[in-house]
Model the fold of this input.
Amino acid sequence: MHTKMGAWTAIVLAAGRGTRMRSSRPKVLHTVAGVPMVSHATEAARFTDANDVIVVARPADRAEVSLAVGGDVECVEQPDPLGTGHALATAVIAVPPESQHVLVVNGDVPLVRKETVQALAALHERRRATATLLCCSMEAASVQQIGRLQRGARGKPIGVLEADDAPMPRKGEVEVNVGVYAFEARWLRRALGQLKPRPGGEYYLTDLISRAVADGKRVEAYVTQDKDEALSVNGRQDLARVETAAQRRLRDAAMAGGATLVDPATVYLDATVQLGQDVTVYPNTSIRGASRVARGASLGPNAQLRDAEVGPDVHVGPAVVEGSILGPRVNVGPFSHIRPGCVLEEDAYVGSHVEIKASRICSGAHVGHFSYIGDAVVGAHANIGAGTVTCNFDGVLKHETEIGEGAFIGSDSLLIAPVKVGAGAVTGAGAVVNRDVPPGERVAGVPARPLGMRSGRALVQKEEGISLG
Done:
């Protein structure tokens, strides 16, 4: 249950150099389930009803980190890489004086749940603790080189033993320090000034736990049962382990919400994806970005979606859909590519090996196979024959093509934009259309010339006996 808490300020530590990543990108900007790690940490921190959220970054990374976490988050710089204690001291200066509690989240623990942070904060307030930390019991053999909790004679936390303080036991369970803390704000300001540098010259945030014990203050530990929350990222292998755990979590949530994942291990989801009930996702399918998939849609196998809005009862086969809207009952066939900026209205049909870019395919229109439709509007119930190309680029500028309602575009037609083909008009196979075609007119040839003024659709159905469905 979400209860109202006291005045909190949240601080996310994101100034680590991340040298073991061997990357030009700041460590906290590497993504997990499509979202930068620092954004995961920031979202978890918000669950304390924090009045202010502060992120600490290196000066060189500040702009990128600020962009990742959003404009409502204050970003402060840690000018010198002097450890987590120094980073926290840098940020505490920006904590408003009215804040009673400070939540601290390491930026490289992206799987910490919001609910866990809330539970830790609630324990901290309920026990009137000066310091509270998040820990997790794990097998020593599986633990990364991270700190572990020390408990005293009565089981109370007395400190954090870092990896360079003592070797990790080879067997048994240890309680690892996850990297999420709550502190009483007034005490924290004073205690940070009393931290002593370690032999390497760095100030360790974790030394605050033993400092609180030495001051006779209450220290608490909240134990999470979810071992995935304790996974931190220092190198590429860690990043892969965290991604695997994140995908498992997202797949489980999707299935619990009513989606069917035929082979869950081969489905990849971003944390920002929304899947409706009775969605079916077939193997080897990737759904990324801000994609939203409505009830009853089916995707794959081998589909790739990014930032796609998919309506109810849509079918997307082994195709790519990016930054586009698919209305109810749309079909996208094998090996087609729906590029950004497209709208496919209800009952539109796209066959195999079709590329569509920045275009609107109106209700019930058919784009059969092996076609390119770019910067175009295809009218309702129009039929685009195989091999049709809208020639939208003249070498300098892009131009638009308009195809009217019920028009019939013959196979291998080339429509030289800017051009309009009117409602019910027909182009013969292989036509090169470089002038507007009035409604109902038939054209053919290179360049295309008028053949007569009969209903294009009726004429084609009568004389050629083909199906438009």
Remarks:
- Residues 8-236 form a domain with the Spore Coat Polysaccharide Biosynthesis Protein SpsA; Chain A fold (CATH 3.90.550.10).
- Helices lie at 37-45, 62-69, 84-92, 114-126, 185-192, 207-214, 236-256, 456-464.
- Residues 462-469 have pLDDT under 50 and may be disordered.
